[in-house]
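Table S4 entry, Choline transporter-like protein.
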Amino acid sequence: MAISSNFYSTPDAHKSFHLPVQQHRLPSSNPIKAQDSIFPNRTVAGQITRSVFKFLFYIHLSLISILIISLTLYALIFSSSSHTSKWHLLLPLLSSPLTAAIVGFTWQWITSCNPSKAIKAAFWLSPLLTFSIGIMFVYIESPLSLTSGVIALLSALIQSLYGCWVSPRFQYATKILSISIAFPPPARTRALGFSLVLIGIIFCSFIAGGIGFARAIESKTKLSPLFILLILVSLGWTMQFLKNVLVVTVSRIKYMYFACGVEIDTRVAFHDTVKYLTGSVSMGSVLVPAIGLFRGFARWMSLVGGDMDEFMFSCVGCYMGIASALVMCGNRWGFVYVGVYNKGFVQASSDTWEMFNRVGLEQLIDSDLTGSFCFLCGVTGGAISGLVSGIWTIVIHKSYASEVSIYAFLIGYFMCRLAMAWPQACVSAYYVAYAENPNPQTNNRFDSTIPTRLQQLQRSLALA
């Protein structure tokens, strides 16, 4: 049932469907009118925090645009002819956004047509392609490339071992992914994803040009490395922002269907996200990668340390305790409540995680493979982009091949993560909606997939 602009204008409109969620938590499903927001007012402190992050994001975007335009003009006007050969590096670098977009759209198509093949392909292609780019780095034989090559080869080994370890979970991951992306029909949400990927291509091409022109004027200024660092930071934040805008929009649409049986117009949901939720999305785009990186490090310390409480003069238990506390402040599941209830990101993350703990889903959520699947799709995209740009640069100017490959890898990774935000948002909404109302008697849109998986986990723990 599509939601029209006057859905709540008639007294009996709410009787047309049954709402299984509690009334005091019921999200509003009608479009936001131009003069008013359907979202409830929040605390002053929360509003200020979100306004600050919104301001910082837009001001950083303006400043980085000014920087790249200035670098471009300076390089075109003042760069000497002896350094114009570096401009040829722009072509290999500019190829990375387009290459990554093709890979990202391919992942989208495979995921929607055959989730099982998509998951298996991601877990086996990713280490192979990472290994390939590692070999390319070793072949280049520069200090930077050798370091990058060793890191890539170790990463390929770790990905291979991880794929073997989690292979028993593939069947459940396939089922949960298939269910979550199937309903309601994904045509419009996928169209939104396509549009944001096109925006990503334009932005990444702009970024690639900025990096290329910064390298072209390195003989004129010693600040080129600083300029490139700033451009890369902007690349990461902006692409995370675009990805999370898609996550918030799609997860709201999916949540309303799973929780209420209501379909929201994609354009309305996207408008609400851009107009009212930019601050929370900007904040989450910073917190989630940082907390995820620390949490991964803590887990690695725990696995390597084993039963020892200290490892390399560090307290393993302390790291895990901090990681457990941080996940309450920022996790990707919180984006669902950001879109549905207009909560601040930290509060939304805390509420979703507490809800998972309350209904016993924390172990299942923690071992969910959807995040790993989307991450590995991004690695594959980054590796393919890095290989294409790197081999091209080896042919025309080998001494710059390692640097160009690294930049292309980053661009490719972020582009593919943006393309794969759609299925990740669907799964997030499915889990959150289920956790909020797991009773099959009041919500018939959930089958036995999650309860069966929980029983399997409980049996395995009992046997252990």
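The CA atoms of residues 321 and 367 lie 18 Å apart.
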